[in-house]
Amino acid sequence: MDVTVLMENSTPSSRLAARHGLSLWLELADGGRVLFDMGPDEAFLANARVLGVDATSADLAVLSHGHYDHGGGLPAFLAACAATGRNVPVYVREHAFEKHVSGTVAHHHDIGLDLALASDPRVHVVREKRDLGGGVMLFSTARRAHPTARSNARLLMRGADGGLVPDAFAHEQSLLVDDDGRRILVSGCSHGGILNLMDAAEELLGSPLDAVVAGFHLMDPSGGTVEDAEATRALARELAARPARYFTFHCTGTDAFALLRDGLGERVRYLHVGSCATI
């Protein structure tokens, strides 16, 4: 599988735009094309054109969860597809279009998706799992055997009683790809904890993962916090004990990445806007 980063927090190129968010272009060995997340706005489409990628040629698109920095570009993508006569299905997890906010109960701001798109016929709701064909599967998990990052504490959702409650991330989903015998996990922010997602993926596969392409949510830019250094080192040790290679970006943060690199060496790589990786 080839991965091209269409949107991420940083880029070494003056020709590409960087935003706080994520968008990945996945090309499978059998020719399948998947758009995974769409950044906070339409800028991922401009980056795609610079990189020679026609995002509207995707066979399918996935939103990893209901936060604007991953799905704010959805209206622009649907408009671009309509302009070219393409009807690309977009898969979202149930609860993705519910109210999502970041901050505290006293001071918070909306980080959700455009609610008007929830009823768009091109948007398809996934519950726990869906086989999309071609060795591609969407799945979610509620398991929390391993701790999740403390930065999750600033992400809240509106409860049924009209108040604010901690987000359990029932709107998060991940992609599991069996690409010519290589088993790859793709996740946006891994709010449920990357180790929990890996456990669930390996249970579905019945074998270890070969690669993980994911943000680990080890920093919170709006709160100005990063994960405790020892917790990050402990995560690096857990990841090193597994055979996978790791490709990360966005919410991992460069400070945490430096610690992961200390523990994982060449087995972990940070991807910026415009980065390409063959897995």
UniProtKB/TrEMBL annotation:
Chain ranges of the Metallo-beta-lactamase domain: 20-217
InterPro entries assigned: DHPS-like_MBL-fold, Metallo-B-lactamas, Metallo-beta-lactamase_dom, RibonucZ/Hydroxyglut_hydro
GO molecular function, one term: transferase activity
UniProt feature coiled coil, ranges: none
Lineage: superkingdom: Bacteria
Entry protein name: MBL fold metallo-hydrolase
Annotated organism of origin: Candidatus Olsenella stercoravium
